[in-house]
Amino acid sequence: MRAREVKNLAGSLRAKLLNRSRERKEDFQLVLSRWIAERFPYRPGESPQHDQFVIAMANYIQPGENAEWAFVYCTLSVVNMATMEVERRIPAACGDQAFANETLPEGACFVPRIFRKDASTLRVFFASEAPRQREAQTWHRDFDIRKQTFSPAVGRARIETASGTFNMQPRRFYDDAVAQGFRGEP
After folding, report:
1. Can you spell out the DSSP letters for 3-60?
2. 80, part of any domain
3. Residue 131 placed within a domain
4. How does pLDDT run across 69-112, given as a tens digit for each residue?
5. What is the total count of domains within the chain?
6. pLDDT tens, 132-148?
7. Does 79 lie in the same domain as 30?
């Protein structure tokens, strides 16, 4: 069966979500907000599955997000594109989580991003943050598309600057900018 071409994507999506809110007897704004929170944060680049995976921040405590909330974690949602339903949510990372190779420090796992590493792997990047307690560190974790599982290990993202290669932390960006003439405050 071939998918039909949608001429007004925004209108079509609004109609689907409005129908869903009526079927479930839920407020349309709540359904729309939930769809945006689960679906919109970031999608990997063009591929047969490019719409199927959504990475987002989540928490079970209260609405919203804040880098100071240690209970904010990253989760990967698998979306059925025919029904627009979330089929699975797979936790990606949370503060204090032990992996095969190391344990994340306590703090929020924030601003996740997802990229296609190769034909069968997505790489999820996220920042581990505890503002005013320690410097943020960007981490990555690989997701096997076929098995729909994350690798048991986590890696520290690295940044290459004129001074060398370092763990990806805000201070390294600032130090490199200063070395190249930047004079502002961090």
Report:
1. PPPPS-HHHHHHHHHHHHHHHHT--HHHHHHHHHHHHSS---SSSTTTTTEEEEEE-S
2. yes
3. yes
4. 999 999 998 888 778 888 899 999 999 999 999 999 999 998 89
5. 2
6. 899 899 999 999 999 99
7. no
